[in-house]
Amino acid sequence: GAVVSQHPSWVICKSGTSVKIECRSLDFQATTMFWYRQFPKQSLMLMATSNEGSKATYEQGVEKDKFLINHASLTLSTLTVTSAHPEDSSFYICSAIAETQYFGPGTRLLVL
Amino acid sequence: GDSVTQMEGPVTLSEEAFLTINCTYTATGYPSLFWYVQYPGEGLQLLLKATKADDKGSNKGFEATYRKETTSFHLEKGSVQVSDSAVYFCALRANQAGTALIFGKGTTLSVSS
């Protein structure tokens, strides 16, 4: 099946710094990618829909200035957590649609 | 809006026991329904899906039937194995191009030998 990769898989940063997470579709082109956030022992919450060449669509309650999404090409979307704080610590998962919806392995962010 | 409700976990079973994880949904129209599995330390994997009423999805001994009348998509397996220990997520997607999956909260299954 199709493969979606994420980088990095783990990141630890200091409060106030910005962190960029990359999501790539490795063997297909994805016009649309999705970013989810998963808290421990909870479900995946959709944060935003990333469309190639246009602005992302954010879900209600997600700060677009805090979570910057750039979908610069058909195989790459990036999520930048700006001025990260400890409450931003979470597991971030991206997803892309081919014949079905494929998920990346996730990026675990820990903000100290 | 659309939503998915699945039974709270954790579910603890002995090997070869019968498994049912309940899932119900609320949606306008006729969504597609999915079960995803997340093994420890791994990403989400599609387990099975059904795209219309009365469809049965099946994979690796797991089954789920799309029941429109009860808005349900319960996951079943006749004989679980230790290797089935994972978190299972029920999800739906509206039948509209480019829409994202909406997930339930997940149910942790632990199978002991």
Structural topology:
The complex is a heterodimer of chains A (112) and B (113).
Chain A: E1 4-7, E2 10-13, E3 19-25, E4 32-38, E5 44-51, E6 57-58, E7 67-73, E8 76-81, E9 90-97, E10 101-103, E11 107-111
Parallel strand pairs in A: 2-11
Antiparallel strand pairs in A: 1-3, 3-8, 4-5, 4-9, 5-6, 7-8, 9-10, 9-11
Chain B: E1 3-6, E2 11-14, E3 19-21, E4 23-26, E5 32-38, E6 44-50, E7 56-59, E8 62-65, E9 75-77, E10 86-93, E11 102-103, E12 107-112
Describe the structure.
The complex is a heterodimer of chains A (112) and B (113). Chain A has 112 residues and is mostly beta strands. Chain A is built from no helices and 11 strands. In chain A, strands 2, 4, 5, 6, 9, 10 and 11 form a 7-stranded mixed β-sheet that branches. A 4-stranded antiparallel β-sheet of chain A has the order 1-3-8-7, with no helix packed on it. Chain B is mainly beta and 113 residues long. In chain B, 0% of the residues lie in helices and 50% in strands. In chain B, a hairpin with an 8-residue loop joins β10 (86-93) and β11. The radius of gyration of chain B is 14 Å and the shape is globular. At the A-B interface, β5, β9 and β10 of A face β6 and β11 of B.
In N-to-C order, the SSE pattern of chain A is: EEEEEEEEEEE
Main sheet: strands, sense, barrel of chain A: 7 strands, mixed
Spans of chain B of at least 5 consecutive residues whose pLDDT stays below 50 are: none
Bin the strand percentage of chain B. Answer: over 45%
Q: Please, how many helices of chain A?
A: 0
* Coarse structural class of chain B: mainly beta
Sheet with the most strands, sense and barrel status of chain B: 6 strands, mixed
**Which whole number gives the mean pLDDT of chain B?**
93
Spatial gap, N to C terminus of chain A: 37 Å
From the alpha-carbon coordinates, what is the Rg of chain A to the nearest angstrom? 13 Å
> How big is the Rg of chain B?
14 Å
